[in-house]
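re the bet — no i am not wrong, look at it urself. input seq straight from the record:
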Amino acid sequence: MSVVLEKARELAEAISVCDELADLREAARIVEGDELATSMIDRLREKQEVVRRAASSGLELPEEQITELRELQGQISDIESVRRFNIAQGKFNSLMEQVNDIIAHALSGEEEGSEPD
C-alpha cells in the first residue's frame, strides 16, 4: 500500500474518533429523538420540495408561501436540539475546512496561513 493511502486511512481514523464528529453524531441523535423538531423538519422538507418543483417548472411562489417557509425555518432554528446540532455541525465543518486547507497548502507549496494568489 502506498504511503499516501496509508496516511489517508490514518486521517480517516483520526477524524472518525475526534470530539467534533462525536458531538455531531450525538446532536443528530438528539434531534432525531425530538418529535417536535423532526415533525417541523419534515414539514420544511415538504415545503422545500414544493419550492423546487415550482422553480423547475418556472413558476413563482406566492409571497405568502415564501413567508411561511421562512417562518418555519426560524421556528426550527429556535428549537434547542436543532440549535445544538447546528453548532456541532459548524464545529465539524470548521475542522474539515482546516484539514482541507492544510492539504491544499501542502500541495501548492505555500506556507500554512499565507494568502493564496
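see?? The chain has one domain: 3-99. told u. also Residues 47 and 68 are 9 Å apart (CA to CA). so pay up
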